[in-house]
Amino acid sequence: MVKNTANTSSKFRHENICELMGVCFDATPRLIILELLAGGDLKSFLRESRPRNTSDQRIQMVDLLDMAHDVAKGCKFLADNRFIHRDIAARNCLLTKKETGRIVKIADFGMARDIYRFARLLSKRW
Could you list the active site residues? Predict the structure, then answer.
């Protein structure tokens, strides 16, 4: 599983895809080494940024749209390279930082698949 995930992750270079730095098969458990994204995962960030009351505005709509756009750009890159992630969730999206100017990157390619691997076996639609 780790080998397949690392192999899949190593194929992608994009600003919205978490970069694979290396793997370690010598230790148990086996390790996948990713770029450091100090902002943590998107799920935790959104929970921490949730307004406590109606007058409290911790995160702006434009920030939410920017983060959604980052995820969409990452998904488009994967689709353009014939892959689907199959587990897009806030827990699998990581932030470069928590402050303004953050970039969201897609991580965890354990379920990603080449959508055209078996394309020759599929019937053609005319």
Answer: 87
The model's pLDDT over 79-104, given as tens digits with 9 standing for 90+, comes to 888 888 878 899 999 999 999 999 99
Among 95, 78, 75, CA closest to 35? 95
- What span, in angstroms and rounded, lies between the C-alpha atoms of 9 and 4? 9
CB 45 within 8 A of CB 98: yes
Query: Two tokens at 53?
Result: 């009351």
Contact 42, 90 (CB under 8 A): yes
Report the SS3 class of residue 71.
Answer: helix
Please give the Cα distance from 23 to 88 (Å, whole number): 23
Distance CA 20, CA 91 (A): 18
Q: Superfamily for 2-116?
A: Transferase(Phosphotransferase) domain 1 (1.10.510.10)
3-state secondary structure of 94: strand
